[in-house]
Structure formats: C-alpha cells, structure tokens
Amino acid sequence: MTAPRTMFEKIWQRHVVVDRPDGYTLLYVDRHLMHDGSSPAYSRLKARGMGLRRADRAAATPDHYVKTDSRTKDVPDPDHRRLLNDITTNCNEAGVQLFDLGDVRQGIIHVVGPEQGLSQPGITLVCGDSHTSTHGALGALAFGIGSSEVTHVMATQCLWQRKPKSMRITIDGTLSPHITGKDVILAIIGKIGAAGAVGHVMEYAGSAIRGLSMEGRLTLCNMSIEAGGRAGMVAPDETTFNYLKGKPFAPKGENWDKAMAFWKTVPTEDGATFDREVTLNAAEIAPMVTWGTSPEDVLSINGRVPDPASAPDPGKQENMKRALEYMDLKPGTPMDGVAVDRVFIGSCTNSRIEDLRAAAAVAKGRKAQIPAWVVAGSGLIKEQAEAEGLDKIFREAGFDWREPGCSMCIGVNGDVGVRGQRIASTSNRNFVGRQGVGVRTHLVSPAMAAAAAVTGHFTDVRKLVG
Amino acid sequence: MDAFTTLKAVAVPIDQANVDTDQIIPARFLGRTRDRQVEGFFHDFRLDPNGRPREGVTLNNPAYKGARIMVGNTNFACGSSRENAVTTMVDNGFRAFIAPSFGDIFFNNCFQNGCLAIRLPADRVARMRVILHELPGAEISIDLAKQTVVGPDGKTDSFEVDSFRKEMLLKGADEVKITLGYDADIKRFEDRQRQEMPWL
C-alpha cells in the first residue's frame, strides 16, 4: 500500500524521464505554448542547427505585441513588427500549430490554451511566460520558464527541475454574491504575501473552490505567480470535464473515454500531506482592491489605506511609504471613493466570457465617467460576447470594445496609460510602471472595474447591483 | 554558457523587498535586440521621468562603480519570467546575486546565463546591505567550488547550491547537450506515453 499522494506528486512522478542522484529530475513536457516573445528562443535553436523535437506538442499565438485597435502586423515599431512576422515564419517552418492574427482563434496564449482544449488534466505544460500557472486550473502542472529553457524544451521536450514543495490553500464555505476568483486570489496573496508560496506548487481546494466556474479557477491559478508560487492547480472534476468536452484539441470518441478514466485518477488522494497548509474562510472575502505596488498590498473595498506607522519593521515601513508616494495615496483614506482616471478590463487574468458578462451587468444602462477599455481574451470570446450583445451594452455605456491581446496588462504594444493616471485594472500586476511610466495601477475584478468606470471612483460593486 | 568559478567584486545593495523584474528591465525594452536592451537596466528605478538620476539610488552612486554582485532583499526579482532581467544584469557587469529569497523563474534563469543566485539568511543579508551602505565600494568574494561567500566585513558564510547546477556552472556546461545524452531515456518515455496517453 503506497502512501496517499497529492495531485502534484502524481503528475510529477508520471513525467519523470530521469531521476539523478543529485536530486535533479529530467521532466517531460507534454505541451509547450508559445507567443510573439518566443522568437529569440527559436533563433537559438536554429543556431544550433536543431528543430523542434515535438512540433506536434507545441502551439502558438501572437498576443504581447499585437495592436488592439486593428489586426495589422504592420505596426510602427520595427522590433515589434519583426516579432509579429517571426512567429508566423517560425511556426510555418517548424510545423507548429499557429493561431495567427486574422484567425478568430487568436488571443492571449493563456486564454487560447484552455479554450482550444490544449490544456488538460494530468499533463505538464510550459510556456515562456510567468502566467502559465493559469493552465493549472484544469488540473495540469503548468509553469512559466525563461527563454533559455524555452530553447531547451524545443530541443528536447524536457526540462531539468528540482522538485518544488507543495502547499494547499483550502477555502471552505460559500462566496458572497459578486465575489469572484479575482477577489479570492487577491485575498490569498494578501494573507500569505507576494513571496508566500516561493518554491511551492499550490493546490487550491475546499468547497468554495469546487464551486468556482472554470473561468474563476483560471483567474485563481493565473495569479499563483503573484503569490510567488511555482504553479497553481485545481483538481479536475465535472466542471473541468464539461468545460473540455467538445473543445477542438480535447480527446474525442474512444480517446475521450480513455482520457476521462485517467483524469479521474488525477486529484489528490485523501490523507495526502502537503509541506504547507493555509486556510481561508469564503464568507469573509469581500471585493478586493490593491492600494500599493505589490499584489500583496491589497485590502477590501471597505478598507482604508494603511498607515506605514503600523508596519512591523522599518524595512516594511520604508516599502509602504515608497508605495504610497508612488500611488499618491494618504494613510487612512477609504478606498471606496478614491477617484479613478481610467479602466482596463482584459488580460490573461480576466478577459474570459464570464468576466465580460460580469462587467457588462454593471455597465448595462449606465454611462462610463472615464475612459474604459474592454479587451476580450480571444477572437472566439469576442465573437461570443457579440452574439450575446455584450459589445452593444459596453458601447452604449461608452466603453471602448477592442481586439484581443495582452494590451494594457503589460503595455508593450503601446497600450499604456499617461503618467500620473490612476487605473482600475483587471490585470495581475500593480508593479511600478507596469502600465506605463508613472502610471498607478489598482488590481480589481471585472465587476469592480466596471463599477469604477460608471462612477469614476472605486466603489463596492454590491451597491450598484443587487 | 560562461563558467562561474570565483568572483571577487564590488557589491551594490538594493534594499527593497519584492523587487520585480519589471523594475530590473521595464517591458518596453523587451522587444529590442539584446545589445539595445543594455540601457533598460533598472531604467525607471534609476532615472526619473525626465531622465535624471534619482537621489538615494545606490545604482547611481559612483562609489559602487564596477559592481558585479548585487545584494537584494526578500523575493528578489519576482514577477515576470523575462530572462532579459538576467541578461541585462550580465550586460551591465553583474554575475552574482545574494538575497534571502528569489523569484523562482529568475533563480532558474540565472543558471542558464552563467550567473549564481545565492540564498542566505535574511538577517545576514540585511547586515551585508548595511555594511555596503556604510562602506560603498566594499567587496564580496564568492567561491562556488567551496560554496562560500566572504562578506564585506570579512565574515565567511557557506551557501547551499544544487550539485547539478554547481557542476554546470563550474564547467560552463551546455545544458541542451547534456540532455541530448539522455536521448534513449526520452525516447523510452515517449514510447510508453504513446501507449498510455494516446489522446495527447
């Protein structure tokens, strides 16, 4: 009788190619996703005279450098134009499945992977992007890697890894209405800190997590990296299977039955132990908003900007002072009511259909008081939203309805704010300068972002929608 | 990859916790060729929006000129997986980083670029930063084979490093080449997986 194992342990063991006595493992990669920033990695592969070992296990889409006001590849910046052309040339040459600009399936890679059924339970999945943790929502072991490791995966379909530790976040109870995966993950990061899960693979468990839709789980796992986690995952269940069924790259027919039989064996077994356990109470989670320049600088919309004098040590005090100065916020200010200059709804964190529906429900019949952008995560989501009339609701409310891409989450395509602007953003990082030099980012859920748009300030969305 | 064996060099302290890779190189520099990313190094951290050096930033202090070691704080280089955060460090002379903890991806990326990321206890790292502020230009000495760091106060600490990573760094080994040596194992794995997971 073997000891009960965690989901992470099982997926890890299943993908060991070589275990070295020095504690390093050669781990097989089932799925490799690429984007328009992957071109230098491919160039290094070619310089070695090599091709992709498993082009059949790779897929790519341009997202970082694409414009969101048109679908042209003829962007003004020559470096960006080269990257957008490289992904097409490279994928065609290597025989990699590409969802290119102009293809309705194009979008943000972490939206496209699950949507196409490429991300599946029990697999290992990597991408040269830290938000690869997103795909763990389907019960995969998924993590971001650097460009050299991307080359290594292209060449060998493997990675050298030291096994991370395991951590379980259990959230039992029922989430209040209008509390989303975004609020849950921000509450978790607020509790454990931005370094709280460094070196750990996180598993999210408990009845509140089970109750989340696939979109909510994707948001949750997406920001595991903001808690410092190597990866984040949720056990596959009926929600997962129903989501995957019929997706283009999901198994079909006899293979579906075989896959299902395996997928059901993926979840953590009763009695399995984790290196760390953390619990939160679902009922206590309110709509969250960040006040500082790290995702751990977060509080409930009903909270007040904290006072650096309350910091536990001089180092933290200095960090808080610096953050408040950058954010132009005074200690003690109620977050509800802080004026906002601009709103961004999008990114691999919050650009899926459920996110757009939640934002539209708030926007409906109201008017944006400040510029507000909605950037769907993929062409298919945009199409679905338009079929549901969401674009009409947004447009009538004065929101800008744009083409899919990473857009203002990272801003490398030119979608950035103006110095001094305060942005309510559904993205994942409120780092200094993330949305433009001198721009102040506050992370919120899509409904909270829409609430800020229609009132011009942060407001508890529960006051707007019953 | 360049080998890393020993390094004796000026060390510069960075006091903030959770320094993210967006600070090390802002995203707007990433699309460029590597030679034109050099100036992105801590760009907005060092310079104000008018391009003037910010006061009190150690990286602007000429006393730390020629620094090749950076001493950071908790969760150093967290956030984005951009390997440019390591390459811009290398292209600005840095080869070793000492902190209580690192962002996991940056930590891994270091070893891909001939750099050494060393974890030491938080109080020891804090002490090193204090001394480096008091004695700008002071040196730290690192010996990878012996796994020791001699601080700016002359005190020696031992550090942990995975023996696999250590060997690779000491030799400047080519990781892809090493992995290709396991080709038979990879093939065996793939054959088995084709049977077990035919849907992939």
Polypeptide structure, described:
The complex is a heterodimer of chains A (466) and B (200). With 466 residues, chain A is an alpha/beta fold. Chain A folds into two domains: 7-277, Aconitase, domain 3; 289-463, Aconitase, domain 3 (2-Layer Sandwich), CATH 3.30.499.10. Chain A has helices at 7-14, 39-47, 78-94, 109-115, 147-156, 181-192, 207-210, 214-222, 238-244, 253-263, 314-327, 353-363, 379-387, 390-396, 446-455, and strands spanning 16-19, 24-28, 31-34, 58-60, 97-98, 124-127, 141-144, 158-162, 165-172, 200-205, 231-234, 276-281, 288-290, 298-300, 342-345, 372-375, 400-402, 422-425, 440-443. In chain A, the strands form five sheets. Chain A has a five-stranded parallel sheet. In chain A, strands 17-16-15-18-19 form a five-stranded parallel sheet. In chain A, helix 6 (181-192) runs parallel beside helix 8 (214-222), helix 12 (353-363) packs parallel to helix 14 (390-396) and helix 12 packs parallel to helix 15. The mean pLDDT of chain A is 97. The radius of gyration of chain B is 19 Å and the shape is globular. In chain B, 33% of the residues lie in helices and 15% in strands. In chain B, helix 3 (84-91) links the parallel strand 2 and strand 3 (96-99). By secondary structure, chain B is of the alpha/beta class. Chain B has one domain: Aconitase, domain 4, CATH 3.20.19. At the A-B interface, strand 2, helix 3, helix 5, strand 8 and helix 10 of A face helix 4, helix 6, helix 7 and helix 8 of B.
Keywords for this entry:
heterodimer, A: alpha/beta, Aconitase, domain 3, B: 200 residues, alpha/beta, Aconitase, domain 4, 7 strands, 33% helix
Q: What's the structural blueprint in terms of helices and strands?
A:
The complex is a heterodimer of chains A (466) and B (200).
Chain A lengths: L6 H8 L1 E4 L4 E5 L2 E4 L4 H9 L10 E3 L17 H17 L2 E2 L10 H7 L8 E4 L13 E4 L2 H10 L1 E5 L2 E8 L8 H12 L7 E6 L1 H4 L3 H9 L8 E4 L3 H7 L8 H11 L12 E6 L6 E3 L7 E3 L13 H14 L14 E4 L7 H11 L8 E4 L3 H9 L2 H7 L3 E3 L19 E4 L14 E4 L2 H10 L11
Parallel strand pairs in A: 3-4, 3-6, 4-5, 6-7, 9-10, 9-12, 10-11, 15-16, 15-18, 16-17, 18-19
Antiparallel strand pairs in A: 1-2, 2-8, 13-14
Chain B lengths: L5 E8 L7 H4 L18 H4 L22 E3 L12 H8 L4 E4 L4 H8 L4 E4 L2 H13 L4 E5 L4 E3 L5 E3 L4 H9 L3 H6 L2 H14 L4
Parallel strand pairs in B: 1-2, 2-3, 3-4
Antiparallel strand pairs in B: 1-5, 5-6, 6-7
